[in-house]
Amino acid sequence: MAYHHAMSLVPRRAFLALAAGALVPARALAAVPGGGSGAGDDRLVASALDYRITLERLALVQEEQLHRASGLLERYTDLFARGLVARRDVEDAASAVVAARERLARTRREIAAVETMVAEAEARRRVAALGPSRPGEVREGGGVIRGDGTRGWSLRDLPGIERFFVSRFGRPLPVSALGQTSVHDRLGFDHTQAADVALHPDSAEGRALIGYLLTTGIPFIAYRSAVGGASTGAHVHIGPPSQPVTVR
Predict the structure, then answer these.
(1) 27 pLDDT tier (thresholds 50, 70, 90)
(2) Would you state the pLDDT for residue 75?
(3) Cβ contacts of residue 12 below 8 Å, gap of 6+?
(4) Residue 136: left (phi > 0), alpha (psi -120 to 50), or beta?
(5) Chain centroid to CA 244: how far?
(6) 8 A C-beta contact, residue 121 and residue 41
(7) Is residue 180 within 8 Å of 192, Cβ to Cβ?
C-alpha cells in the first residue's frame, strides 16, 4: 500500500532489546484516508472532551467539599479534645471526609479514562494505517506501537501480567480501565476485552510491560501521543483495538 514507507517494522528481538533500556524512535505517520472511522471518531472525541469539561468542573466542586469536610473534622476533633462535642460527632465528620475523598477520586479516575479514550480515538487512523503485525513483529509510527500477538487473549489472562509486573517492580500493575466501564458505555466505545495500563510506553515500566507482552504473544497497542500532543492519556492498551459501538 502507498503508506508502507511511513511505517517502522521492528523484529521482536530488536524490540525486546529496546524494551530493556533504549527508547523506540517515534516516526511521523501521515493520516491515511479511510484508515479510521472518520466522522465517527470526530464525534466521539468531541463528546469525550465535552464530558471531560463537565468532570473537571465537578472535580473543582468536590475539591471544595473535601476541603470543607476536612476543616470540619479538624474543628470537631479539637472540640472533642476539650469535651465540647461527642465522639459520634467526630466519627461522622471523619466519615464525611472519607466519602468526599472517594467521590473526588472516582471523578479523577473518570477524567483519566476519558483522556485515555480520546488518545485512542485520535490515534485510530494511525493504528489502522499500521495494519496488523505479523507474528514476532511490531509496527510503530505516529506515536503508536502495535503488536497483534501470536495467540488468543481474554481478560482472564491479566493475572499473569499482573504477577510479572509485581515481581519486577514491587507494585501493582496500574490498570486504569478493565473491560467495559461506565465511561465507555456513556461515550459508546467497545472496551469489552481490553485493559488499559497507565504507563507511558517509553518509561522503564512501560518498556518492560511491552517486552513481556511481546514475549508472551499478547496483543497490545501502546500510545505515546495523547490529548493535544501532551503526555496526558499516554498508556498501554492490552487486547484487541477498541471500536466505537455501532448503534443498529
Answers:
(1) very low
(2) 95
(3) 136, 137, 138, 214
(4) left
(5) 16
(6) yes
(7) yes
Closest CA to 141 of 244, 5, 2: 5
Characterise 229 by phi-psi region: left (phi > 0), alpha (psi -120 to 50), beta (else).
Answer: left
pLDDT in tens, 93-138: 999 999 999 999 989 888 887 877 777 776 666 666 666 667 667 8
| Domain-wise residue ranges, the chain | 4-244
Question: Quick one: CA dihedral 119, 221, 175, 204, positive or negative?
Answer: negative
> Does 241 score more than 60 pLDDT?
yes
Report the C-alpha gap between 24 and 210 in whole angstroms: 11
pLDDT of residue 4: 34
Nearest to 138 by CA among 203, 233, 211: 211
How far from 122 is each of 39, 79, 97, CA to CA, in Å? 11, 54, 38
d(CA 242, CA 186): 15
DSSP 148-170: --SS---GGGHHHHHHHHHHHHS
